[in-house]
Amino acid sequence: MMGRAVANEFAKMRRLRVTPVVFVMVAGVLAVSCVEFTASGFVESMGDPAGKPWQRLLASMSFSVLMLSPILLAVLASRQVDIEHQGNGWLLSRTSGLAPGYLCRVKFVAAGAVVVAATVAQSGLVFAGGALVGITVVFPAGQWLGYTALLVVVNLVLFALHLLLSARVENQLLGMGVGVLGVFFAVISTGLPQWLSHFLPPWGYYELIKPVEYREDGSLVSLAPSYVSVLALGAAGGVLFLLVTRQFDRREV
């Protein structure tokens, strides 16, 4: 049943204008990240390991992600659920044997695959951009791939949160408002100590996964991302998502 339900959700997405949202999500991060190419000293650093061109590009990408992802993930989640509110889809699915919570889990599997693909595409395209402009310094594969993997986890947790919110509250403006507020939380977390960012889940975790950071003197230093914290976030988010959706299964539609 799950396989057929997931396939049905992909069919729905063709009519929900998901592609433009995903395109903006990927292209927006790529465009903002590539602004770094015009930054002072970047061209001179492309062949100089001391200039850390890949790390500069990674810092630019991590900033663009926290500015764009909270809103666009909220839009993506809203698109998945609003069709059920507008067309009485919850009741129709119930009569087909799919309880509301089960349908939410199906939507997470289907749209979550899109979120993962978009996140990996963002990272891959920013890397490709750096290679195309001529960065010849050795590529920090471990640092880049580690950030991408952690970003996938944070994006999925945030998407799950918005999916539940959109399913629970019919007025989708609330989810959009939370998305805008999420950008605010993500931005202010950049100025907080790491231990405080743990108290702003999941938005503060964009700061915790950041692999590089600029110091006050303008120097760029590598950081140790909080792998354990992000994995704990993913586990806790998964458990909470299952618990809440099981409550949805018992809800009247």
Question: How do the strands and helices of this protein lay out in sequence?
Answer:
Layout: H1 2-13, H2 18-34, H3 42-45, H4 53-86, H5 89-95, H6 100-133, H7 141-168, H8 173-189, H9 194-197, H10 205-208, E1 212-214, E2 220-222, H11 227-249
Antiparallel strand pairs: 1-2
Helix pairs in contact: 1-6, 2-4, 2-6, 4-6, 4-7, 4-8, 6-7, 6-11, 7-11
If you had to describe this structure to a student in words, what would you say it looks like?
With 253 residues, the chain is mainly α. The chain has one domain. Helix content is 73%, strand content 2%. It contains eleven helices and two strands; from the N terminus they run H-H-H-H-H-H-H-H-H-H-E-E-H. The chain has helices at 2-13, 18-34, 42-45, 53-86, 89-95, 100-133, 141-168, 173-189, 194-197, 205-208, 227-249; strands at 212-214, 220-222. A two-stranded antiparallel sheet has the order 1-2. Helix 2 (18-34) runs antiparallel to helix 4 and helix 4 (53-86) runs antiparallel to helix 6 (100-133). The mean pLDDT is 91.
Low-confidence stretches: none
Mean pLDDT: 91
The residue fraction in helices comes out at over 70%
Q: Work out the number of β strands.
A: 2
Approximate shape: elongated
Strand order of the biggest β-sheet: 1-2
Can you tag this structure with a few keywords?
single chain; 253 residues; two-stranded antiparallel ribbon; elongated; transmembrane helix; transmembrane
Brief write-up:
By secondary structure, the protein is mainly α. The protein has helices spanning 2-13, 18-34, 42-45, 53-86, 89-95, 100-133, 141-168, 173-189, 194-197, 205-208, 227-249, and strands spanning 212-214, 220-222.
